[in-house]
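User: Modeling request: complex.
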Amino acid sequence: MAQRTVTIASSVGLHARPAALFVEAAQETGLDVEIGRAGEDAVDATSILGVMALGAKHGEEVVLTADGEGAEAALETLVALLSRDLDAEEG
Amino acid sequence: MSLIHEQQVVLDLGATDRHEATRALAETLAATGRCTDLEAFLADVRKREETMATGLPGGIAIPHARSAAITEPTLAFGRTEGIDWGAKDGPASLVFLIAAPEGASDAHMQVLPKLAKALMKKEFTGALRAATTQAEVVAIVEAEVGDVVVTPAPTPAPAAAPEATPAPASSLTLVGVTSCPTGIAHTYMAAEALERAAKEAGHTMVVETQGSAGATPLSPEQIAAADAVIFAHDVEVRNAERFAGKPIVDVGVKKAISDGPALISAAVAKASEWKTNPAASAAAPAAGSAGLATKVDSKAGIGTQIRQWLMTGVSYMIPFVAAGGILIALSFMLAQVALGENGAIEIVNYNLTSDDAYNIAQNFDILSLTSWAALLFVIGGAAFGFLVPILSGFIAFAIADRPGLVPGIVGGSIAATMGAGFLGGIVTGVLGGLVAKWIASWKVHKGVRGVMPVVVIPLLSSLITLGLFITVLGRPIASLSDGLNDWLTSLQGGSAFVLGLVLGAMMGFDLGGPVNKVAYFFGTAGLAAAGTAADAPALTVMAAVMGAGMVAPLAMALATTLRPKLFSEPERENGKAAWLLGASFISEGAIPFAAADPVRVIVSSVLGSALTGGLIMIFGVTLRAPHGGIWVLPLMGGFLWFLVALAAGVALMTTIVLVLKSRDKKLETVDAVATV
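Assistant: Request completed. Predicted assembly structure:
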């Protein structure tokens, strides 16, 4: 079981569009990825509704967990994604 | 405040693509005043949609944007047959449009997680799909998502947020203004609700009620001491410039009654936001140099704005219609008793200016019933003389605030004098208001600015408005009247039914305006020509003219009784008076309806009145009285047929006006906003 803690960098938090980008990336890993606040129930990181329901804000720390082959690498990718300000990248 | 409103729910969007659906939902936000610039907001949504489609698994779409055109965080909801919204698992049938003001990232973030959580539940989406009324949808959504109260200071760093949140213990001083079109009940209910909510939240609040009982204005000291201002109003706040520079929460009056505590929270939020950044959150009405901005200017599309202008004018005119009309009707009743059958005819000869016995000022006899009838008639007539000037003046007032009054009222008076009727009054009101507003927008030297609202704007706007009306706009109206008169004379040889139709249509067209008057004078002129002849065709023409002129007010009275929901509160009030006015052949009783919604009311009025006119010509009802309505029924030849024809026309017009009004969903929304 791989685990990473990351601070949300998106300036308005993990809301619709950043959430969707994140979910897409999580789905691409092909693994069971979960995201949640430390000490709270985690949600399925491949479910857009679940991630949006989490409502992680800018500056909040979230815990990512994944199981299976290549989990470490997959989490690295996702951590890198969340560490970017996804909102600043819109056109 | 309430995130979703019944008016922001569209049970069947009927749209074929996501842009259409988004536009339909955004229009509901514009209608409730939460979106100030439809196109700008749609552009923001589209931009967001282009970056990434907002369709979600499970047949859901959540188009959304933060936009400068949005006044408060809000949701609109609509159902579709299934529109491709970019989700992998298929088209979306539940659409939530999420809108948040620019910079209010916190509010945005409060809505989304809650909504997402709710959307994961099958019961929630199932209930939304099964809901049959808009109220049901609102209840379902509010139960899950709840009311999101905007937390102040949308600071990006969460660490800073706690400091920015106002301490619950701190007591603020709030002031408010409430008003509604009739100024009777809702103004005071809203004030009470606000004061109670403020007290419960530990704040001090004083509310100025701009109702019909007159306002006790807030003192300048009270306003200066206020931390925030709440406007809960459906007609313009008078002297809004007094609140310049204060943070203002600006909503409809209903909001205060239904949701006082939320408004108080919003005001508190604004106050704390204002303390950190006064420029950004100071209210728009404060920005104008002379404080001329009004609610209608900034909050709605042009169609809604025009309707609100007209409604403002109408709401000020209604008391004049009621007072004048009822006095005249009473006068007819007394005259019937005092003078017998011809009383209602005789009494219209009385005035204040002639040198003969008809001058009631010189010949008033306290013991004479005729004198009393004449007195009532003269007073009622005087009140009617103000209909067009007041209508015009307060249309201009709605557009340009106080400086609009002068060009509006004077213009309306000229329109009436020139025989342009209430249509002319609408023209002078809108023109006067726009001109006054335009002049008020001039950038002028500081030294001149002080005298702008008192001298310069009224002077120039009156000159421009009336100059234009008298020289350019007045002439077409005059020639219109002349042309119609000639045309009518040439028609008289034709079939009686067609003549009746034409006269009826004219009576119903502008309800006391020039076209109506041409038809009426045609009738009375014929009456004079007929002299004492026992059975002249002119007597039938007179009966047709009078019957047709009674249709519009009676039909509108019936319409407001049958389908009150299609009408605003002031219209319903006026509907009650319209029974008496219509029965007394006072076509003006329908003007408030026609002024508020000209196309639908005039179209149906023309058709209904024409039918009555035509039928009376066929039936050959005769009438020797030039006026009097049902009070001169005994004078008619064949009055039962007169009643049959009248009933037919009223039934036709009522049906048409109800169909036209209920077909337009947008109108219902607008009316609901104007209804207080």
